[in-house]
Amino acid sequence: MVAVKKIGKLEAEIITVGREVLTGKTLNTNSQWLSGKITALGGVVRRHITVDDRVQDIAKAVEESLNRGVDLIIVTGGLGPTFDDVTREGLAEAFKRKLRLNDSAVQMITQRYSQLRGLREEEVKLTGLQRRMAEMPEGSKPVMNPVGVAPGIVHECGSTLTVAMPGVPKEVEGIFESYVEPLIRRRVGGFQLYELNLLIAGVSESIIAPMVGEAMKNYAPIYIKSHPMGASLIKLDITCGGKDVKEVGDRVLSAASFILRRILQGFNDCSGTRVVNHPFNS
Question: Is position 1 within any domain?
């Protein structure tokens, strides 16, 4: 298990590998799901990037994230046995390490095939392509894939932890929840995210924008995102994170009240402005 060196904010970047995403054939649901999970756990996702199934593209993307000094890099896709699964090679180039067969990974793959085929482990004979899934950069560690076969890859480089996973969504979710999520929870020290959603009718985004900016300044560190939903219909997502449930909740509600008061004060005739709903999610 990788040690967590400090408690505090965790910054992450997500790298997706796959030409099928770049060509529009596959929707990148992995990045959306991962971002939601990391944010809900108290982390901050700084960047998404999608690259082709080319070693040099993968290596460059990982090197850029390493150079930015983020805490966590998640790479999805390209860990299978086929010819275009070259994430292992890209990671090795980025880390400047040789690619080696990892005995622990071989054992994990053998165990998974044994479970999936109903065989004893000694009866499982891996092919060359299947053994290829056990290759990883020197110094890396394999992570058991609880859903599929190909193990995840974990590598520490300075203060940055890189976790690579197969691109199948259920496998991404399985490895994240079993391995990455506990690491994030220990790192952020009980940090949680809280959100209040307001749907406001009768006001345009240009009118409400300065009020949102003032609220973010007055009630920092809240974050407010406005979403135009149609003519004179705005959805506001007001979020704030912290360890004290009451303090964070009060801050979010105070910011919402501030915006609503300012909206009402800004109109002589307030009958056209109304709050449609305001579910509070925590």
Answer: no
